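Quick bug: CBS domain-containing protein output formatted oddly.
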Amino acid sequence: MRRVKDFMTPASRCVTASTDSALESVVHSMVYDSSVGCVVVLDPNGDGTPRGIITKSDALEWFLQRIPLETTCALVMNANVTCASPMMTAEEVGALLTRKRVHHLAVTDDDGAFAGVASSWDVARECGRRWTLPFWDEYLERVASRRRAGSSNAHTDAAASA
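Here's what came back:
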């Protein structure tokens, strides 16, 4: 069974900001530079522990409320960061996301340092891969069997018998 560390976005590929970053730079990073669903906020003088999280939904809400772009992350971030261990399973992370009613969580190591991000989409993709893999294994076996039997159109024959 794969662990969240196997399908999360590692910290090296995540967009992060510091608590004193202005919203303008965070929103620009999310929308134009990286097209990510969230930014993890870290304390610039801290130990790498996530201090907050900002999502695209947050940015939309700020736009609608006309929050000034000079506002710092510390003032508007969600400071209740949901965190997961890299060793949690997809099912455990999915249950945590559902229970907390969030779509993104920070993955932290044993010391609480930021290790990556996992999203509901990551979990759905991981679970979907496991649901569909047996189907594809069976399908490919039928194609191979028909090819061994000499069918010139093994692919469509296998699809027709599915």
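Actually, after a second look the formatting is fine. Residues 4-120 form a domain with the CBS-domain fold (CATH 3.10.580.10). Closing.
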